[in-house]
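Query structure, 233 tokens:
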């Protein structure tokens, strides 16, 4: 993922926080050697504004590399501490948009599952409650729109634009829970191996709401997904 100018992705900035739209394909942190990541791009941007000063960038939350969406970063330790407290307390509200395949019988529901992560394969799976190492995962979804995928001759099935509100933040949570519920995401080669398209993962953290760590004003930022699957209906 090559970015010409990181400023094109910044939604808001003041002396305490920086909010940006992370594009799909770009890691938030610790990209492979020789690959750029969001943290490095933003630190370089901050360093250019204040030459000679070591840039501070507090990572409050992350998005998986193939997922696009809104992220907030802290620009000083005080802001980082407050935002981290909000995250731990569930005060930072994240709403996702996704495109799922298949016929959805229940148009809105709350999904409650137990997920266990496998570090060797970098994947998670739904397991029985009480399984050692498993964590409870909760999300709510609502189907906003359904259409036939007529553009792909091999796949004329239904696709669904779905809004998802996360109550917990587990590893690959949305992808795993939606696939387990019979609504695998378009472009998900890990949890939707039966899909034929070469489209990127159709998942976007489209809305982020939180309290400003200093002014205490309630803020909300929203983006339109750029992914191919979102534009095909």
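Result returned for the query:
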């Amino acid at each position: 993922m090559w970015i010409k100018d990181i400023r094109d992705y910044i939604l808001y900035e003041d002396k305490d926080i920086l909010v940006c739209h992370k594009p799909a394909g770009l890691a938030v942190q610790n990209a492979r050697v020789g690959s750029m990541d969001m943290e490095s791009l933003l630190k370089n941007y901050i360093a250019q504004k204040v030459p000679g000063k070591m840039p501070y960038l507090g990572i409050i939350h992350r998005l998986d590399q193939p997922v696009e969406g809104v992220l907030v970063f802290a620009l000083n330790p005080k802001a980082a501490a407050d935002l981290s407290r909000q995250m731990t307390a569930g005060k930072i509200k994240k709403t996702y948009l996704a495109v799922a395949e298949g016929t959805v019988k229940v148009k809105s529901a709350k999904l409650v599952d137990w997920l266990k992560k496998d570090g060797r394969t970098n994947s998670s799976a739904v397991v029985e409650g009480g399984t050692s190492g498993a964590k409870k995962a909760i999300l709510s979804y609502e189907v906003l729109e359904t259409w036939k995928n007529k553009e792909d001759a091999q796949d004329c099935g239904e696709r669904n634009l779905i809004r998802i509100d996360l109550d917990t933040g587990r590893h690959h949570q949305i992808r795993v829970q939606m696939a387990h519920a019979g609504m695998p995401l378009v472009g998900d080669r890990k949890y939707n191996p039966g899909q034929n398209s070469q489209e990127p993962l159709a998942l976007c953290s489209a809305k982020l709401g939180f309290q400003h760590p200093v002014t205490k004003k309630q803020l909300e930022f929203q983006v339109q997904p750029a992914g191919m699957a979102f534009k095909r209906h």
